[in-house]
Amino acid sequence: MSGGIDVTDGWNWRQPQPPTPPSGPSAAGSWWSDALADPWRDPHAPAAVVVPGAPVSSGPAPEPVSDPDAPRRSYAPVLLICLITALLAGALGSTLAYVFAVRNGMGAGTTLGAPPPQTAPSAVQRAPDSQAGVVEKVMPSVVTVRVTGAIGSGFVATTDGYVITNDHVVEGADKTMSVAFSDGTTASAKVVGRDPESDIAVIKVNRSRLSPVVFGNSDSIAVGDRVLAFGAPLGLVNTVTDGIVSALDRTIQAGEPGGTVRYYAAIQTDAAVNQGNSGGPLVDADGRVIGMNSVIRSVGGTETEAGNIGLAFAIPINQVRRVAKDIIDTGKARRTVIGAEVAATGGLVGSGGARLRAVEPSGPAAAAGLKAGDVLTKIDGHVIEDGTDLIALVRKHDPGATVAVEYRRGAKSQTASVTLAEDTN
């Protein structure tokens, strides 16, 4: 072979001779002085510089040195902030959980019905013309009358303390009489005047600046009109019941045997009225007083067994107002008469009517041409069945009022116009 490069397949391979190390003192003292003689050295590997680490000590680690004058850091603010944050996060989480639970119908049980509209009025707000609005307007004018051993009702007629009630409510009243208002306050009272036969009385309350009722017109009401009855039935003060006008000019004779006989040409109503309602107002749908609750019909055998069965009667307010005004102005009520005495029995059997037993020569009946023995069958268009009807319907009118009457004299029916008068006896 020729050339400068020998190629072999290894059969004549020989251990190469290591290079001769350098001589001299510098070579013997260098860290690489034995490198060429290292049998594990790769002659083709690059040289590397190795930096030795810190010497390992066999003793304990030295204690760190701190500055004794440096301020120490407190962990209290950090703990306080963490605590407040945790509390706020817990409260917020509970609130959100409750809101979501309520909205989803959880936690509060089953939700029934739709939510009310946002514009709906609250429970204490009612339109003035609603029944609740009428009650709110009238109630401050209604009082409970407390007499020794009895209780009744009344209503304020004037701002300076005049109150109207039934005569039978204040009958036997003494100095212990008092009234209670709807707000629970009380005041002493005294009797101003009474008219037992019409069952109307006036008392004076020791208080001023009161709220009087609004008076209506009892001649303008009709059967079927809605009414409200106020009072203290069975001692249950501030009670209101409702009903309708069931009948007009229902004539009633009332009174204990041997006592005063009272006559009513009353407004009949089916509003619930019981003992204790006497003297309270009966008002129309606008809150105007049209009558004074006075009498009830009952199936009970005694007064203590009497109770509401839908038959109650009120004195027409036109009559009440006239009599009360007479009592306040003059101390005495005027009584309206026709100037005739009525027989115990009526007309012919089955024919009805009120037979005149006697006629005063200078009285209203005589002036109209009526005579003893005549049977009155109608007055102002109202049918007369007996003497009670005639007396009650006459007393309903004011003295001086002119009424049309129909009567029978023998077999002949006739008419007359009678100007009623005031009883001077």
From TrEMBL:
Family matches, as Pfam families: PDZ_2, Trypsin_2
Domain PDZ residue range list: 327-386
Coiled coil: which residue ranges? none
* Disordered: annotated segments: 1-70
Against SUPFAM superfamilies, the record matches this protein to:
PDZ domain-like, Trypsin-like serine proteases
The alphabetized UniProt keywords are: Hydrolase, Membrane, Protease, Transmembrane, Transmembrane helix
Superkingdom of source: Bacteria
In the record, what terms sit under GO molecular function? serine-type endopeptidase activity
PANTHER family recorded: PEPTIDASE S12 (PTHR43343), PROTEASE DO-LIKE 8, CHLOROPLASTIC (PTHR43343:SF3)
Write the protein's name.
Putative serine protease PepD
